[in-house]
Amino acid sequence: MNIQIITVGKLKEKYLKMGIAEYTKRLGAYAKVEEIEVADEKAPEQASDAEMLQIKEKEGERILAKIHPDTHVIALAIEGKMMTSEQLADNVDKLATYGKSKIAFVIGGSLGLSEAVMKRSNESLSFSKMTFPHQLMKLVLVEQVYRAFRINRGEPYHK
Questions:
Q1: Residue 124, annotated ligand binder?
Q2: Domain 2-152 belongs to what topology?
Q3: Keywords in UniProt for this one (predicted)?
Q4: Is 129 annotated as ligand-binding?
Q5: Residue 7 in marked binding region
């Protein structure tokens, strides 16, 4: 299985980089993982709705340019479907069973994802109704994808 993790913005925090690197390394035993960072747009402090829409659209274009046509896209969005770790594992397993060997998880920037990215997505996933920094979500996502593969293999993992 090929997993892409597409995020907006450069990850700067060392502690997050270390955590993501650890789980990406572990996940490498189960899947080929590609991390893709696209440039974020600078947003003015008091951006208008039109400016925010334009920023999301520009970031969205960069995201969409990285997605292959045959890739199953899962957008991380606050309004997405909430799942347990077991449900996510089952979802990943079903995708593999039905020949979807390329999965892209997409994490937007501070303003979220554009309408075009949401339309391209096959499904959307929410980890919580709370708002989290998108850099932190990358760490949480990689850990949960790793956990999903462990669950699917029947391998032990702490609860």
A1: no
A2: Alpha/beta knot (3.40.1280)
A3: Cytoplasm, Methyltransferase, rRNA processing, S-adenosyl-L-methionine, Transferase
A4: yes
A5: no
